[in-house]
């Protein structure tokens, strides 16, 4: 069990570091064990459930890497160019005859090496003499321009490990093995709620004091990108009894419940109390900005993560808390996004002990190096600050200030979701 650290921030009481909190949450969720077998195209982005060992070597047979002329290494001209009659021809997709010593075989890229040959001259490096013979220059290394069977992947090699989130190149590899489907973890079922009397769903009338619910849609599409099956459970009103009962109901049919809003300490913040009334609260605040109030609880065995309502806080805590939770549920190997070093073109002060994320745009400085420009305003409610920037600069717990010209770690939005 992680230690609760002393909190030095606004609310008083303990506040956990992001890593501690995520460690606790991911340790508390049980990996979904059910799998399904899906076609290669549908496997993109899913989590591979079983190791895939190469059922055949890649390439499956030794072949020419270029268009040219194949000869045995024993015939290679050593000091002077030498002419060879061309007595056979082999193109991609067919097996040619064995080569005769002292002869060259016309060969094309991808064609199997004829028996008795092991080296290929590129057609650009040779000429044809008046007698129609190919004149090969001296100095080529034995084995040149040949792709030996298994040079890419030997037969039996575990080429794709269970827990991998499949990428297009992984799908290509499975196809190269002749597979038509892959076994993946079934989709994680996630229930998504917004909370707040001030919210109206797009497509419904909006009262003067209401705003349209945007977080729910952002969260649903981020979950979709993580391969989840998402249930849109709408907006919960700021009313404890119906909220608690909706959470309890959602727990029965989902692997994870995600809420946004209502996790602060205000009188109308009912999510925390709701979780406590039908389940147990594991933690509810962490040292992250934007963010801070992030609740994690368990309702009848189903984990719940309650994100803050401010859109930027909701986005940032999704990326750093919910994403690892979903990946843990689906058995995905841990893959922390790696910040890219860039030069700060801003100054910034922050509290020690808290992880902070700064919304930035990248540009090239006069010397060609990448620079991060801070979005001019800081409000956690500004959707434009997410739309008009390229990513987040991550400032670790021990950082207290950033001066222009210092190197900082940048996380592009496309790497975060
Ligand atoms: P809360 O965390 O419930 O105190 O909400 C903090 C702020 O975020 C308030 O200004 C809310 O109006 C806003 N907010 C809460 N939920 C949403 C949502 N689903 N979409 C957009 N803004 C929201
Ligand atoms: Mg609220």
Structure description:
- The strands form nine sheets. A six-stranded mixed beta sheet has the order 17-14-18-22-21-19, sandwiched between helices.
- The protein has helices spanning 18-28, 40-43, 168-176, 215-225, 240-253, 271-278, 311-329, 384-387, 413-416; strands spanning 35-39, 52-53, 63-64, 68-71, 82-84, 86-90, 104-107, 119-122, 127-128, 134-136, 146-147, 158-160, 181-185, 189-195, 199-200, 211-212, 229-236, 256-260, 280-285, 288-289, 293-299, 302-307, 340-344, 348-349, 355-364, 370-374, 391-395, 401-402, 407-412.
- The protein is α/β, with parallel strands linked by helices and 417 residues long.
- The chain starts with 17 loop residues before the first helix and ends with a helix.
- The chain is built from nine helices and 29 strands.
- The longest helix is centred in the C-terminal third of the chain and has 19 residues, at 311-329.
- 20% of the residues lie in helices and 30% in strands.
- Adenosine monophosphate binds next to helix 4.
